[in-house]
Amino acid sequence: MKIGKVSQTVLKRSILKPLQFHRDEAIVEPSIEEMCYGIEVQADEQCIASSAVLYGDEKDLAVFALAQVVNDLATRGAKAVGASVHVMLPPHAYESRLKAMVEHAERAASAHAVQILCAKAEVSPVISKAVVYVNGMGVLKKGELLQSNMGKPNQDIVLLKWIGLEGTFRAMREKEEALSKRFVPTFLNQIKNLEPQLFSERELFIAKEFGVSAMHQITSGGILAALWEMAESSNVGLEVDLKKMAIKQETVEVCEFCHLNPYQLTSAGSVLIFTDRGEELVSRFEEEGIQAAVLGRTTMDTARVILGGEEKRFLDRPAPDELLQLYSAE
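RESULT FIELD:
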């Protein structure tokens, strides 16, 4: 495609046409000319936003960004209503790729009752990978906002779902040809069947109704970064058991093949939760068939301790996400 903003013909044909899902809260419908977007809220509601920027070669790249945004809003107690999607492509990309990216995003968004309020695309001569920027808007009742800094000492730390799951998907997308030579199709299909686990809005509203102090999605830098960020924001220490961090065997296999550390791997859909009643929350999740486990406790001091059998070490500051290795190796 030509460098610069995509033409009006491409915008109509490959971006606006696939967008079919609509919500009553939408103020402005997406169009060629319109650059703004918004939603209506009730007098007793608040509107908050969250954003995610991802890059790579995956046609469903916007789905991962959308999952991060929807889940981040849910960790704050908000229901995602709308999102904007901005795609930047390298010059060698075809229009069919752009259309596929928008169609993937629309299917995922409509499945979770999120309207894509604005969608734009352009071709840049300074990038070699696609870049997707998603900004999501959500609503919640006044007084119900949850934040990462609301954690307290002497609380249980619950891990919702498995570590490294999003990173496993994206590594598979980037290295699917090489992985297909190592693993049988059944194995790769098992990974693809886990895609719905990337969205955790339902699970997070169960946690909100149960009663929690704070929730934080595990994204860039993996669970080790998320633990640090949550402890730092709440000014607490922590002590967690490495062996209690659930991980799919598919993640183990893909990480070994790609030489990635799953504990520093992005994992949209997986969430850390601070609560006074961790075991009760885990039981509540189990009633719904949801994977969860208590990893440890927050502490009064600021020491951040990771236990691994008889080994004890202190948590380091967040490191770059392991997925970067896949791109830097190219």
